[in-house]
Design goal:
- With 233 residues, the protein is of the alpha+beta class.
- It has 12 helices and 4 strands, in the order ααααβααβααβααβαα.
- It has helices at 3-17, 26-37, 41-50, 68-76, 94-98, 102-112, 126-132, 142-149, 164-172, 185-189, 204-214, 228-231; strands spanning 87-92, 115-122, 154-160, 198-200.
- Strands 2-3-1-4 form a 4-stranded antiparallel sheet.
- Helix 7 (126-132) crosses helix 8 (142-149).
- The two termini are 21 Å apart.
- Inosine-5'-diphosphate is lined by residues 136, 141, 145, 175, 193-194, 196, 199, 202.
- The site of inosine-5'-diphosphate has 9 residues, from loops.
Length: 233
């Protein structure tokens, strides 16, 4: 099993242990299971330790070595199969809700083949909105953005599926609807950047952070969808 792959799986196990659902692909799970069956878990542990001073980017996950048993568990237990695909945070902003676009947006993710694992209607406080958009706090539009996000109901969701973080962003389109391609949510359904109706996590780390901010672990539902056997081999 490739060392980098194993480190990724272990890192996902650490995130899972932190109360956030893992993003382990079926492929990774199978590879880890194979490695474990072959007795290479000791080598895996030492690799994680050995990467301490490397430039690999995995160094922040070093304590994850402690979670290797969790990775092994997730790799081998078929009952957690449905939890092992990637997850992303998607929100329909107040403009999307007020314009009656909830079903349109949910439908696009659903028709693509992604699985809804959490959903709720929430009016965020301005403080909560500021936390969500913390990375934009230096931008001139930050205050207006937080005012807007907290101005009414938001549909907060977690979607699961292979590649859902990156491809979810493709479904959404570019930040400015003026630059979004036709066929995307923003390209088809809105006009202005400050009223672009939907939010989607922009990478694996923000997905974990945003899911953790908006949802309690017990609000994320792990289940097998009937369509899965027709979507994944
Ligand atoms: P994203 O939503 O495509 O990830 P970000 O750059 O993270 O885009 O910006 C977050 C949100 O801030 C955007 O969705 C949009 O609503 C708003 N925003 C971004 N740029 C501008 C701007 O130039 N003026 C007003 N609002 C903006
Ligand atoms: Mg963003």
């Amino acid at each position: 099993m490739a060392r980098a792959r194993l480190a990724t799986v272990v890192a996902a196990a650490a995130r899972a242990a932190a109360g956030v659902r893992p993003a382990i692909s079926a492929e990774s799970r199978a590879a880890l299971a194979t490695a474990v069956r072959k007795g290479s878990s000791a080598a895996a542990t030492s690799f994680v330790r050995a990467s301490a001073g490397s430039q690999s980017g995995y160094s922040r996950w070093l304590p994850a070595a402690a979670f290797l048993p969790a990775a092994v568990y997730m790799a081998q237990d078929p009952t957690v199969e449905a939890a092992e695909l990637e997850r992303t945070f998607i929100a329909i902003k107040p403009d999307g809700v007020q314009r009656g676009l909830i079903s349109e947006i949910v439908g696009r993710f659903e028709r693509k083949g992604y699985k809804l694992v959490a959903i709720k209607l929430i009016v965020p406080t301005k403080e909560f909105a500021a936390q969500h958009y913390d990375d934009l706090k230096e931008r001139p539009f930050f205050n207006g953005l937080c005012d807007f996000l907290s101005s009414g109901p938001v549909v907060a969701m977690v979607w699961e599926g292979q590649g859902v973080i990156k491809y979810g962003r493709k479904l959404i389109g570019a930040t400015s609807p003026q630059a979004s391609e036709p066929g995307t949510i923003r390209g088809d359904l809105c006009v202005q950047v400050s009223r672009n109706i939907i939010h989607g996590s922009d990478g694996p780390e923000t997905a974990v952070a945003e899911i953790g901010l908006w949802f309690k672990p017990e609000e994320l539902i792990t289940y097998t969808h009937n369509a899965e056997k027709w979507l994944y081999e």
